[in-house]
Each structure stands twice: as C-alpha cells, then as structure tokens.
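Ticket opened by: R.M.
Priority: normal
Category: complex prediction / small molecule

The reporter submitted a protein together with adenosine-5'-triphosphate and asked that the result be attached to this ticket for the collaborator who will pick it up next week. Submitted input follows.
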Amino acid sequence: MAKIELRGVTKRFHGSEAVKEASFTIHDGEFFILVGPSGCGKSTLLNMIVGLEEITEGEIRLDGVRINDVDPKDRNMAMVFQSYALYPHLSVRENMAFPLKLAKLPRAEIDRRVAQAAEILELAEFLARKPAVLSGGQRQRVAMGRAIVREPKVFLLDEPLSNLDAKLRGQMRTEIARLQRRLGTTTIYVTHDQTEAMTLGDRIAVLRRGEVQQIGTPQELYMQPRNLFVAGFIGSPAMNFLPARMIDNRLELPIGSLEISEPMCRRLEATPGPLAAGFRPDHLQIVLSDSRQEGGLHIRGKAEVVEWLGADLFIHSDITLGEFQEIALPEELGLAPEKQHRRTLVARVDPATRVREGDTVSLCLDPRHVLVFDAVSGENMSLELTH
Amino acid sequence: MMESGGKGSLERLFWGAGSIVVVAYALIPVAWIISLSLKRTADLSDQRFLPSVVSFENYGVVFHDPQFPPALWNSMSIAGLSTLIAVLLAMFVAYAVVRLEFPGRRLIMAAALAIAMFPPVSIIGPLFNLWRSVGLYDTWAGLILPYITFALPLAIWVLAAFFRQIPWDLEKAARVDGATPLQAFARVIVPLAAPGVFTASILVFIFAWNDFLFAITLTSSNDARTVPAAIAFFTGSSRFEQPTGAIAAASVVVTVPIILLVLMFQRRIVAGLTAGAVKG
Ligand SMILES: Nc1ncnc2c1ncn2[C@@H]1O[C@H](COP(=O)(O)OP(=O)(O)OP(=O)(O)O)[C@@H](O)[C@H]1O
Ligand SMILES: [Mg+2]
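Result attached by the on-call engineer:
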C-alpha cells in the first residue's frame, strides 16, 4: 500500500523555481511517469519525494501521512539513479545486501532476498564481482536489484535507462514493465524519452519549466493533449503545427480551409490572438493521383526527405506559409522551422508506398483530426469542455 | 590491449630496458649505502661494491650511540604527529572546497599553492629567533608546526584531487538505502576516500621524516633532534675515525620505515578503486 499525494509542492533554488505548485496523486500500485524536456524539474520533484531535496512549499503525503520532514532513510522508498550509484568497493552481492544490512535483517533473510533478486534479474553468476567489471546492462540490473530486495513501498527511478544503448534500452524497458507488474509496487519513473513514457506508464505527468502541464493516460495525452506543448512533446515524429485563422466560420490554414463545428466556432471567436492548427503525421495520408478522398484537405508537394523504417515510411514535404504570420512554438520542443516562412510537414504513410526523394506527392489531411490551439496561451481549443 | 608480433616484443623490450635503467638509477646509491653499512671499518675504502666480510658492527655503533636512538624516537613521533594533524586538517579543507559552495574556495586553493612555493630557507632565520623567544626552540612542537605548515598545501591538493573523483551520488544512494548521514559517510565515502588519505599521509610523512633544514636549525639536543640532523653530528666509535660506516648504517635504519610504510599501504593506494560506480 502506498499512495503519494502532492499538494502545492514548490521548490526554489536561490529564488528560481525548479518546481511550481505541483499537486497530484499517485495511486497505489500505479506506474507513474514524469516526463519533460531537460531541466524541467523532474529530478528535483523525485528528490523531494524521496527526501533528498527539501520541499520549499507545500506538502507530500504518503498514505495520508505528511512526510515533508521524514528522513530519507525512514521513508522506505527505493531509488535507482541515472548513474546507477553502485558502491564500487562492494561486490554485487554486498551492493544488494547493503540496504538490508542497514535495516539489520537476519543473515538468512538477507541471503534469501539477495538470491531471489539475483534470480529474477539473472545476476546469480555475477554476485561475487565488483561493479567495475560489469557491463552497462548488468550494472543497471544490480541497481534494480538493490531496489527490489528491500521490498519498499515505492520505487523511484531517475532516467534508469538513459546510459544504455538503444537495443538494451528496449530490452530493459520490457523487463522493468514486467517486474513492476509482478511486484505491484507503486513506481515513479522519470524520463525525457517519450517512448519510455508511453510504453511504461499507467499515467504520465508532462512537466515544463517546473509546471505540470497535463496528467493522463498515454492515450489521453496522445489524443487529447491539453495544450500545444503536450501535443508537440508527445508523439514521434512530433505533431505538425501550422498557423491558422478563422474566416467565415471556416478554419483557414496555409494549405487550405476546413469546416468547423458550431460550438467550436464560438469558442474560437472568443479567442483574441492567433491560432495554431496541429495534426499528427499519422493523419496525413498519401493519395494516388486517380483517387480523391472526399472531405479531405489535399496538399501537393515535393517529397524532400523520405525515411523508410521498415514498418513506417515518413515523408517530409515543405510548404510555404503564404500570407500567414509565423507562430511561436515552445522552444524546448525543438520544432523551430529551419527556413523562414516555410514549414516541413511530416506524413506517416503506408510503407509499401513507392516514393522517392524529389517525387511530387499528394497528401490528404483528415480534417477530423486537426486540433486547434490558441497560439499565445497554447491551450487546446478543440478539447470538449468538460467543466 | 592487443599486442602482436614484432611491435609487441619491441615494446616490451623498450619498457623492460627503461624500467631497468630507472630502477638501477634509483637503487644503486641505496645498494651502495647498504653495502657500506655492512663493511668493517677497515674495509670501508677497499673500493669494492660488495663487502668482503659482512659485519654488523656499524649497526652496533649506531644503536649504542648516545644520540641515535632518541633521534629515531623523535623522528617517528614528530613525523607521525605532523602527518596526523596535517592530514586531518587537510581532509576538512579539501572536503569543504570540493563539496560546499562558499565564497573564496578558489582563494584557499591558490593560497595553499602559494605557501607550497614559499622557500622554507627564507623564514628559517626569523623562525629560529622567534622559537627561541617563545620557548619552542628544541621542542617537538617547534618542528611539528613548520612541518604542518609546509605539508598542508600538498595534502590539501592531493586530497582535493581525490575527493573530486568520488561519485558523491553514492552518499545520496546510501541515504535512500536507509543509512544515517554518519553511516553513509563511514560505509561509503570513507572506503572510497581511503586511498587518497593514505597517499596524502605517506607524502606528508616522508616530507617530515626527511626534513633536514628545520631539524638542524631548530633543535639543539636529544630532546627534539631528528635522525637527519643527528646523523650530521655523528662522530663514529672513536674520535680519530671517519664515521662513514655508521652514517651508512643510520641511513639504512631510517630508510627502512619508509619502505615498510609504502609496501604496507601499497595495495590500499590502488588507483581506480572508484571506477565502476558510474557508467563508463
Ligand atoms: N542544487 C541545485 N541548485 C540550483 N539549481 C538547481 C539545483 N538542482 C537543480 N537545479 C535547477 O532546477 C531545474 C530543474 O532541474 P532538474 O535536475 O530537476 O531537471 P531535470 O528535469 O531532472 O532535467 P534532466 O532531464 O536534465 O535531468 C534546473 O533548471 C536546474 O538548473
Ligand atoms: Mg534529471
């Protein structure tokens, strides 16, 4: 049993706010992800939960009990560090036994738990070795082992896979997911990799500059991002964004205009500033010259870059913004256009399509999947208002 | 490391020959002194490398000398105390400089370096007068104080370099694993810092042990005279004899503790002990 509640948690370093007013609840047994660009305060938040960093304002509760002033050693939380933080002077066995010895468990119990963890993590043959002679993946496993032997209330993992190569990362990701299901321990996992976030998390919190942008299941974040930042951060390749404006109850984009619903119209009319339209690469489909899809928005352009990844084919095509004003996107997203007044649209199409770089292609945008954002506040205007 | 064929053996030859040259250069004088110390007084100038008859008479002379045994005791105590105090202080300084944010961190390191560059001979005259007037002349404290002063910069720099390499994340890891701050320090940080502390201690000890300048100037009797100074006052078994053999024997006696010390702690000064805590 472990439920963690954050209430208005704020962290200030010399006056600058690393975490602002974070308030959310992590349920018992949940796999909860903190994701966001570098420097957004993920580690700081995690360190406050585990007790390594003091909480400037607000409170954190564990199963209803305020733990702001509880020493980290008494919180019964286990943490896996990005650097693994294995004790170099101790063998793998001693590393895993370290927390148990501090807890003064009986010898036999320590041996049993270490043996069990070593079996789960396939470390049995390395128990006598020092961390220095292990490979990256093995070290990562030892760090996991040291966390699970304690049977803690909560696991906290700070970018545990970022030091591994891509293949191992995928493998360990699956292993961590399986381990967490098996143990059912509440887990908070920090990453800036959105693939990890999407595949592992029951729920995800997206952070930006210390502020929680949105909390939801991977599906919710993908389908109903609350704002432009979340929309651009979740999904790979990133969502396409274009400037937009409303004219005569139609949404005008540099690539054409779309019909919009009545309530949506009213909402957009109330928006004073410029608008931004966003759509995922998945919703741009290639059309062959002879077939024309009804209701779709057609774009003809040159395939500047074609990326074939086996299961996916990405086509990058440039369009001009015409008389539309540039919109500013959150800089952390790294989506700033390379060329003045032009945008590169990315389409994810059927990999069987035969397209070569330089070909002229015709793309069709499904208007039902276009999201409209207030370009200034970033708010997603197409979300059904629930309140 | 891959070594193959000609290049490998040539390389080995190069390293082998190089090592022999260096070892010979360093050790031949030592061997010469050992040989001298084992010769009989009559054979001292026989121009042979090895003694024709091995005799321990010089060692007998040294240990029956009225001033050598007290000097040995003085040397050990003064060098030992200086090392203890200097390394302890240097540990605090290095820890603070590496771990804490405070104004003037760089200044401390620069000041330490400046002291290390200061030629001791330039203060020895004033120090002599000062010590005489405050009553530190010819006392242990009178030597320990300047030794600490001149050893501290060295110890601080060595320790700071070692402390910087310690992955301090481990301290946090230990805290989360259930350790009190003191346990985290004792069980994780101390074992990792130990090689640095041993290295610094040995360097400081050797510095204090070998010092001649302060020892000869600031002492006048068996109360505080250390071995290097005592050797200079050697007279031999009779006043008409050159004390060469006795000096050689005394030199061997003072070299042995250093060699023992280094051998004893050699395994603990293994560099790279901290490798493997962090990936890469
Ligand atoms: N000890 C500290 N003193 C001052 N500022 C700090 C300290 N620790 C973190 N910060 C600042 O707080 C902000 C959040 O840092 P944090 O380490 O939580 O980011 P992060 O989301 O974990 O980033 P990354 O993905 O790079 O690990 C950063 O702007 C950082 O500079
Ligand atoms: Mg971080």
